[in-house]
């Protein structure tokens, strides 16, 4: 199946292991970014996964393109041009010390693109699914218009649209996010987020104390119903993270299709190797699950298991196969050597 994602791919610069920025003599270069991460996962699951973006023609831009091609992502819709690739610095936390991210992404090629450079009628032709996140319209007014044009074309071509709300306070305010994101929800069939995303992007607040580890699904039912009533989503989905430390999290999710709620099994992930990209792994797993599974419950279990596995893998990309995810869904979590 042809699946299209739209967004920014950046280069992540990280110290080795759990080293701090101020200790580093060198940084590892790790390509990644929300929708690019989703594209890589979907390619791993056997889909025709296409990533849409803009990257400079120089060699640094080529690093990002090559990273996607390495894992089977179709890069034909990436426009080449612009001045720079966005960067972000990531310091991996441990125990009670949290991870830290510093962005250096201003004036990236995708943020300063001309939306007319993209032929979304051609891109969406023959596409079954289109995925974007709230990070993309937060980049700039041009990127917000680009997202709107992509959604309009997807709607015209009867493409299923998913959105990971993915609020980033370093990119915009809640007021700005609500003003931009709310009108775009008319195009969205599957809305994905967490309790903070729903509140800061759309103005909905669940009755749950996630910081205190209280993530009872009942606290989400009311706002899920309200969101479907207001925006007409086919599905509303929320990840539920219990953060005990930087290296130990509880992880589960909830889905609602307008009639039935389903809560996934819970995983305790300890130790976490790298949680960057965990939400993107979830989104990709959900898309694959909704396209291939018989029930929303089966789709959600696949998504949660895929994301749990991502937490054990360094880098942004979730480099697991469909079979590996299915094995975990079936309860094979003992970590024994596979011979």
From TrEMBL:
Every Carbohydrate kinase PfkB domain range: 2-310
UniProt-listed InterPro entries: Carb_kinase_PfkB-like (IPR052700), PfkB_dom (IPR011611), Ribokinase-like (IPR029056)
One Pfam family matching this protein: PfkB
Keyword Heme assigned: no
SUPFAM superfamilies, alphabetized: Ribokinase-like (SSF53613)
Superkingdom of origin: Bacteria
UniProtKB keywords: Kinase, Transferase
One Gene Ontology molecular-function label: kinase activity
Protein family according to the UniProt entry: Belongs to the carbohydrate kinase PfkB family.
Protein name: 2-dehydro-3-deoxygluconokinase
Organism, scientific name: Hoylesella enoeca
């Amino acid at each position: 199946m042809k699946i299209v994602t739209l967004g920014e791919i950046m280069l992540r610069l990280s110290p080795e292991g759990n080293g701090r920025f101020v200790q580093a003599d060198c940084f590892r270069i790790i390509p990644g970014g929300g929708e690019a991460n989703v594209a890589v996962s979907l390619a791993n699951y056997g889909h025709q996964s296409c990533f849409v973006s803009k990257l400079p023609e120089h060699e640094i831009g080529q690093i990002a393109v090559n990273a996607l091609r390495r894992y089977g992502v179709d890069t034909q819709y990436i426009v080449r041009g612009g001045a720079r690739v966005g960067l972000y610095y990531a310091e991996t936390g441990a125990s009670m010390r949290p991870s830290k991210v510093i962005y250096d992404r201003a004036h990236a090629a995708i943020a300063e693109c001309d939306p007319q450079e993209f032929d979304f009628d051609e891109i969406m032709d023959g596409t079954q699914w289109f995925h974007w996140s709230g990070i993309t319209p937060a980049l700039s007014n041009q990127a917000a218009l680009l997202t709107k044009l992509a959604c309009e074309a997807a709607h015209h071509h009867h493409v299923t649209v998913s959105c990971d709300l993915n609020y980033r306070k370093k990119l915009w305010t809640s007021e700005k996010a609500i003003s931009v994101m709310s009108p775009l929800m008319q195009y969205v069939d599957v809305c994905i987020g967490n309790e903070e995303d729903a509140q800061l992007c759309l103005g909905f607040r669940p009755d749950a104390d996630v910081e205190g580890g209280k993530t009872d699904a009942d606290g989400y039912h009311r706002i899920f119903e309200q969101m479907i009533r207001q925006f007409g989503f086919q599905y509303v989905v929320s990840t539920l993270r219990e953060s005990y430390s930087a290296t130990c999290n509880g992880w589960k999710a909830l889905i609602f299709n307008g009639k039935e709620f389903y809560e996934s099994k819970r995983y305790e992930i300890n130790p976490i190797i790298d949680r960057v990209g965990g939400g993107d792994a979830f989104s990709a797993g959900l898309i694959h699950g909704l396209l291939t599974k018989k029930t929303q419950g089966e789709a959600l279990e696949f998504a949660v298991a895929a994301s749990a596995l991502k937490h054990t893998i360094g880098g942004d990309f979730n480099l697991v196969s469909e079979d590996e995810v299915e094995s975990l869904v079936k309860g094979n979590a003992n970590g024994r050597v596979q011979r």
